Amino acid sequence: MASYMIHARTQVPAYMVVQTVAATAASLMLRLMFGGRHEAAPVTVPVGSNMQSLVLEFIITFYLMFVIMAVATDDRAVGQMAGLAVGGTIMLNALFAGPVSGASMNPARSIGPALVGSKYKALWVYIFGPFAGAAAGAWAYNLVRRTERTLAEITKSATSRPAN
Fold first, then answer.
1. Are 111 and 127 in contact (CB under 8 A)?
2. In this predicted model, what pLDDT tens digit does every residue of 72-96 receive, in sequence order?
3. Is there a contact between 151 and 142 (Cβ–Cβ < 8 Å)?
4. How many CB atoms lie within 10 A of CB 114?
5. pTM of the prediction?
6. Which site in 77, 88, 110, 136 is 20 to 30 Å from 69, CA atoms measured?
7. Considering the domain boundaries, does residue 125 fall inside one?
8. What is the membrane topology listed in the Swiss-Prot or TrEMBL record (predicted)?
């Protein structure tokens, strides 16, 4: 368990940095492709109040993380349907929360365009909401998961299975 936590502590921050750099590069590429004639960058900003968007970002990221934990880390789930379950959750989140908050669900998706467009209005909503929602979703899934095995054991057994 200790080696798993050390592994996660070193890889998660690196993954977050890489995602943010990639989102920034993609936003910059779009700006260059369109010659700056469009909106500075497709920056995610609340249509409603900041509090409405914060709550929605928390809820939709909570659901997304819960589904990801259920289909991607639990060896009792059917692996072939994981993509459909995650994609369907993202689609429903975008349909319901998109008109109010933009349905970011990922801080990097909001930070990259904000950096390129120099528009930081309510950026805190898109950082704090998804972080808190993902943490709560993972915690809630571990709470309801019925098994005596730890998450590290489940994840290790899921990644060590031979591919069909």
1. yes
2. 777 666 677 888 889 999 999 999 9
3. yes
4. 24
5. 0.78
6. 110
7. yes
8. Multi-pass membrane protein
